[in-house]
Amino acid sequence: MAAAAAIALAATACGSSSGGGGAGAMGPGFDLASKQILNPSTKTGGTINLVTSQTFDSIDPGVTYSAPTWNLYRTFARTMMAYQHTPGGNQIVGDLAAGPGVQSNGGKTWTYTLREGATFEDGKNITSADVRWAIERSNWSSLIGNGPTYFRSILTPPNDPKFKNLDVYKDGDKAFDNIIVTTDPKKIVFNLPQAFGEFDLVMTEPQTAPVEKDKDTAAGDAYSKRPISTGAYKIATYSPGKELKLVRNDAYNQNSDPDKMHVALADAIDVQLGVDSAERDQRLLTGEADADIGSALTVANHAKVLQDPVLKSQIDDAPDNSIAYASINTQLISNLDCRQAIEYGVDKGTVLNQLGGQWGGEIAGNLLPKGIPGAAEFSTYDYSLPKAQASLAKCKTEAPALFTDGKLSFKIAAQVNAPDMQNAATAIQSSLAAVGIDTEVKLYPFGQYAQYCGNQEYARAHKLGMCLANWLPDWLSGYGMLDQLVTKNGISATSGQNYAFLDDPIINDLEKQALASTEATTQQQDWVKIDHRVMDLAAMVPLTHRHIMRFRSARLTNVMINQAGSGGYDLSVLGLK
């Protein structure tokens, strides 16, 4: 990984700007934030006003699994490793850790040293035991299923019964004494059952943000309502579904952060939650809000901002390696021909129009985006009404039990307060109707989406045959893109991310093969094979490799898009003119 480097903040603006940068002020220019730092500055003070039409899936960094919330939580939660603050950057450096992990034992052992002087907001020194507990509680307790499950897959032997139903709140964590070794308060050693070359990338997850065990009561419930800060900001107030307000953490020791991974330039960050999408856009474009924490402007406002020189100067429209897709529930729609009928029957051109046309991205034929090393574009299914109808007829002969009153019928799930995705769902509904497939669009709240689409029992009982979603890789590798999305590791009884419930032996074995390889080229080839296998099984309908049109107020400083911002604006370094 690249050597650590502090963000270069100059005293003068990068690009022109007039006045104080409020509503009506000219911004630095169109689509620049992934290429350069806009309005670099070290000025302090003021309140940054953020907005989102979504609500948090959880305010607990160990439980959340949403790119925008990961982005925001890095303002108050330090992870072991983190993404460097550079435009378009994807390089990781040490944050709470002094540097990358030191490998030994053939890649099975990883040792990290914690930085000196790092504390919680209450002034208590952060120790290796606090990091250990953070990982254990979010992977081996009742909290399981809401966040990612990488550590469960990587740290414990598969099918080991003592870890299967382990709840560290009830059973204690002695089972990990030889797996996560914390005898030295400043060192944490991970002993893996098999080598895993991407472990530094896993250590960027919010699940590595330290947790004080004595503050983590009621089996995680109390902590989830008020996490203790380790970053430059801390939570002042939180009203679920309405508002989160962050203020400077006076106990933050900048000496423990020599690379300035956390710089609290603004006095406060105010986040308005669950705002109607049209109202959110209005607040952004009139200067009432400075940025959205992760979402795109609605397509309804694309023409308005592109035709107005001032608004266009405050806009970015850049690919972020995310994909808009529709999962196909392989348990509910168990026949391959039925699923292939759906694949052939989705008119992706009409879907792209609902997601912004040329400004919304490109039609996708496969899952892996261009930003993943070794990714190869291909298309297994073209839009063809005759092929769709032929596959459906074949399915009806082979699996008549899937049909009700002579029709294949199911529900398509989309998210509340996401009008573009709702319109995309309606477009899919219309094109499938031409095939002879009956569907109903059903809306679910963003914060609980996985509890519906990722809940096997609920999805089956309520006939959720398709779920529309956006997926941004947890990091730019085949593993970071595919593991939680299409392997058995993403399946949970209550709220996994594998909405297709795809548990295919070939895919699972290919993943094991890729992870066991030390050759990058071999690994990349295996990820591509998995991509092909998923499409052959017709478990996912890739819709678009997305471009995200985002708004940034002209009064914001240090604006950049990078992986640290989970594909969005890097919120950790923002300030105000």
How many helices?
19
CATH class bucket of one domain: Alpha Beta
The shape, in one word, is: globular
Give me the CATH superfamily of one domain: Dipeptide-binding Protein, Domain 3
The CATH topology of one domain turns out to be Dipeptide-binding Protein, domain 3
Uncertain residue segments = 1-20
Overall pLDDT score: 92
Largest sheet: 7 strands, mixed
Helical fraction? 25-40%
Using only CA atoms, what is the Rg? 23 Å
Range of strand content? 15-25%
Report the structural category: alpha+beta
Q: Label the CATH architecture of one domain.
A: Roll
Number of strands: 20
The termini sit apart by 33 Å
Please describe the structure with a list of short key phrases separated by commas or semicolons.
Dipeptide-binding Protein, domain 3, D-Maltodextrin-Binding Protein, domain 2, 5-stranded mixed sheet, alpha+beta, globular, 577 residues, 7-stranded mixed sheet, 19 helices
Q: Can you give a write-up of this model?
A:
This protein has 577 residues and is an alpha+beta fold. Among the domains are: 92-215, Periplasmic binding protein-like II (D-Maltodextrin-Binding Protein, domain 2), CATH 3.40.190.10; 319-548, Dipeptide-binding Protein, domain 3 (Roll). The chain has 19 helices and 20 strands. It has helices at residues 67-73, 128-139, 150-155, 161-164, 168-171, 199-202, 221-225, 277-285, 302-307, 309-312, 336-345, 348-354, 385-398, 419-435, 449-453, 456-461, 478-486, 505-516, 520-536, and strands spanning 47-51, 81-83, 92-94, 102-104, 109-113, 180-181, 187-191, 233-239, 243-248, 268-272, 291-292, 315-328, 361-363, 403-404, 407-415, 437-444, 464-471, 540-551, 556-557, 575-576. Strands 12, 13, 14, 15, 16, 17 and 18 form a seven-stranded mixed sheet that branches. The longest helix is centred in the C-terminal third of the chain and has 17 residues, at 419-435. The two termini are 33 Å apart. The relative contact order is 0.18. The model is unreliable at 1-20 (pLDDT under 50).
